[in-house]
Design brief:
alpha/beta; two-stranded parallel sheet; MAG_DAG_Lipase; Lysophospholipase; Hydrolase_4; AB_hydrolase_fold
Length: about 325
């Protein structure tokens, strides 16, 4: 298959006609915005893949890589995390991306994955980007779902040292929360205020970054702003718990981890450390590229997709 096909911006700015988006209730009734996309095949699908994005992401940002797997015969599913995208908000102010803790997200993912395993054909593969990669790994360590493999893309296992180191973020955010600032934005001036360096941190592809801005303009209801101090504290606590060697050693699921040493958002050293403790993990480094590997320029994006394809051929038969 020619990986370079179907990359026109029109494909990235249009929901596929056969992709179904609906709402499903979480265990406590919270509505989660979910998508299902049947495989592009006349016969049985190759298997089922569940994709989860990162903090502030929404389904439409990843139509291009989802389209690649769709054409390869995979049946696809995923949802917007509670509190972002189309899955409601923890706070009334959408300019603040809040989370009281990460356990609620693990619970939501656990329930979605249980239903997915029961209602879709195998093999089953979980894919998570950034915060989604962190939560997928927590699910594997804590709940042990019977999936065949998982792929972690620039997983959020530590904050980048050039930004706010995890130990400092943990301490400062704890202080902020004790001072009553848990629901206050840690930075930024509103949902539409984005730092000038945001594109550089996410992708070198101006066209794909423009696609995200297009979706944000067309559907502002999907947009969430800067994280709250509560989110930062919850993230730091969750990362500290997941980083323990005895926790990572329990994950027996075959893993592919894709990351870049140039990442300005997540800590490459924390990713390397975790890979050493995971029993069945393959770590693939990219010398170039920013945080969003599957939304990067083709020089990075296509090799990343090819590495994923090779891994799927190996472990998901």
């Amino acid at each position: 298959m020619d990986l370079a096909k179907h990359v026109e911006s029109g494909d990235r700015r249009c929901r596929p006609a056969d992709m179904r988006i609906d709402f499903v209730p979480a265990a406590d009734g919270w509505p989660l915005r979910r998508f299902d996309w049947p495989a592009a095949t006349d016969g049985p699908p190759r298997g089922s893949l569940l994709f989860q994005g990162g903090r502030g992401d929404f389904i439409e940002k990843y139509l291009e890589p989802l389209g690649h797997w769709h054409r390869a015969g995979w049946q696809l599913r995923g949802f917007d995390w509670r509190g972002q995208g189309g899955s409601g908000r923890f706070l009334a102010d959408p300019a603040i991306g809040h989370a009281p803790d990460f356990a609620r997200w693990v619970d939501d993912l656990d329930a979605i994955v249980a239903d997915w395993l029961a209602t879709t054909p195998g093999p089953h593969v979980l894919v998570g980007h950034s915060m989604g990669g962190h939560l997928v790994l927590r699910l594997l360590a804590e709940r042990r779902p019977q999936v065949d493999a998982a792929i972690l893309l620039a997983p959020m296992l530590g904050f980048a040292a050039s930004g706010l180191p995890a130990w400092l973020a943990r301490g400062l955010s704890a202080i902020a929360c004790r001072l009553g600032l848990a629901e206050r934005a840690a930075w930024g001036g509103g949902r539409d205020a984005m730092p000038a360096h945001r594109q550089r941190n996410l992708t070198h592809s101006a066209a794909r970054y423009a696609d995200e801005l297009w979706w944000r303009a067309q559907h502002p209801e999907l947009v969430v702003g800067a994280p709250s101090w509560g989110w930062i504290h919850a993230a730091a606590e969750s990362m500290a718990g997941l980083a323990r060697r005895e926790v990572l050693a329990t994950v027996e699921t075959p893993l592919l981890i894709l990351a870049t040493r140039q990442d300005k958002l997540v800590d490459a050293k924390a990713i390397a450390r975790a890979a050493r403790f995971l029993p069945d993990a393959r770590l693939h480094w990219f010398d170039h590229g920013a945080h969003e590997l599957l939304r990067e320029s083709d020089a990075v994006r296509l090799p990343a997709l090819a590495a994923i394809d090779r891994f799927l051929e190996e472990v998901a038969r």
